[in-house]
């Protein structure tokens, strides 16, 4: 049985993911008050659109990392711009592709480090290079994280280090705080992606 205090966090996660997916795929989305707003599916051009110079993005591995990045994370034909700590200051502006890839990777890896093999790393994550593939990767990551949450009992919510995800504060935080943080990541990156979509739509004005 799902712990009662986890239920509202799962409901919030589900709503945030549904709303973000709707914003990316169309033909309409929840405007936030239950009404539907028309939206066109994201294209490959928009997926990799750089609204300012020197963005971090998802790139073909053969092209190498972008400005101020020192590596491309992941495996396969595509990689995501990155740099080891300390990160560049000020932080690079990131594309829709970068932000969606970050979310998809984080969700899939945290799911594995909660209820899977506890071994997945960024080095073995296959980065999606196109819009359709990027949305599918996000949906797969969200589904994996939700499944992991459903395996958690009430005692696990208070367990420090229940998730062994190596790229966050999981080792120092009760698991319920990690669940809250993941929701926050989807909400705030989802809002950023929505704003990028608005800017792309209006760019020729």
List its salient traits.
single chain, 205 residues, mainly alpha, three-stranded antiparallel β-sheet, two-stranded antiparallel ribbon, 5 strands
- Tally of individual domains: 1
Number of helices: 6
Mean pLDDT: 96
Largest sheet: 3 strands, antiparallel
Strand content: 5-15%
Unreliable sequence segments: none
- Helix-strand topology string: HEEHEEEHHHH
Secondary-structure content class: mainly alpha
What is the subunit organization of this protein?
single chain
Overall shape: globular
* Rg calculated over all Cα atoms: 17 Å
Structure description:
The structure is a single chain. This protein has 205 residues and is mainly alpha-helical. The protein contains six helices and five strands, in the order αββαβββαααα.
Indicate the topology.
Elements: H1 7-25, E1 28-30, E2 36-38, H2 44-47, E3 58-60, E4 71-73, E5 78-82, H3 96-115, H4 131-149, H5 154-157, H6 175-202
Antiparallel strand pairs: 1-2, 3-5, 4-5
Helix pairs in contact: 1-4, 1-6, 3-4, 3-6
Give a quick rundown of the structure.
With 205 residues, the chain is mainly α.
């Amino acid at each position: 049985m799902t712990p009662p205090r986890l239920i509202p966090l799962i409901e919030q996660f589900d709503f945030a993911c549904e709303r973000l997916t709707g914003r990316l795929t169309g033909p309409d989305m929840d405007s936030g008050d239950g009404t539907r707003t028309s939206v066109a599916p994201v294209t490959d051009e928009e997926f990799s659109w750089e609204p300012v110079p020197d963005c971090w993005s998802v790139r073909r591995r053969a092209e190498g990392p972008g400005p101020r990045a020192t590596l491309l994370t992941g495996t396969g034909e595509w990689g995501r711009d990155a740099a080891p700590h300390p990160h560049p200051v000020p932080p690079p502006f990131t594309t829709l592709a970068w932000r969606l890839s970050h979310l998809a990777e984080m969700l899939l890896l945290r799911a594995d480090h909660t209820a899977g093999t506890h071994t997945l790393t960024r080095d073995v994550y296959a980065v999606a290079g196109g819009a359709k593939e990027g949305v599918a990767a996000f949906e797969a990551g969200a589904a994996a994280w939700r499944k992991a949450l459903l395996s958690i009992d009430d005692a696990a919510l208070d367990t420090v280090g229940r998730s062994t995800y190596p790229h966050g504060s999981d080792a120092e935080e009760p698991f319920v705080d990690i669940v809250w943080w993941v929701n926050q990541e989807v909400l705030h990156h989802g809002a950023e992606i929505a704003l990028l979509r608005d800017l792309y739509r209006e760019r020729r004005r």
